Amino acid sequence: MSEKKNVPKLRFPEFTEPWEQRKWIDTVDISTEMVDPTSGEYDDMPHIAPGNIESFTGRILDNVKTVKEEQLISGKFRFRPNDVVYGKINPQLGKYFYSCVNGLTSADAYVFNGKHGITQKFLFALLQTSDFFKYSVSVSKRSGMPKINRDELNAYVFLAPREEEQDKIGSFLLNIDHLITLHQRKLGAINLTNAIVLFDNGYNPALACELIILKGVLTYAKHHYQKQHVILRLL
Question: Which of 143, 145, 222, 224 gives the lowest tally of CB atoms within 10 Å of its CB?
């Protein structure tokens, strides 16, 4: 970002307006809808906890079971399609996903919904930025068990564009996710050593797609916590 105007150095060309500073407490709802998994109502739904999520990618692993199969007994948070789920324990592990189904998640996770001009897709992208990662890890160190609580989330401040640009950013990233998943299923293994894609506080979508596809790199990460990840700084 340009420090003077809060304008990304690289962005979709049709957008020119500066981004505005927003507060988490004003723009994100953290769900309190905890349900009883023993009621029978949720038996056929998947239970997706942090242990079922691949770090830093938002992809769901193949170890997910239904609520009934897990024989869950303690309260779980309910999520729905388009909800954003985030693992609050050990935020340095980068556990989050964009939901496309109904299900339950662990009490060790949060369910987020954007409001007041923050879209779901952009919110999901925001969780994957280096700025949010650094903030979540720094505040989590204040307790014995690394964890980010609601008050710490509510204190977070970030920059955001208009909703139209948010949707374009979020849709672009989710489309990349879908491409990655598709090719992972076809190839079974991904070569992560062919390229490192770095964008300083912004991105060029066309160039990003070209580099990822031409170099055969079908995975990415939004920060560089683990060296084996390709780095794609998006915001």
Answer: 145
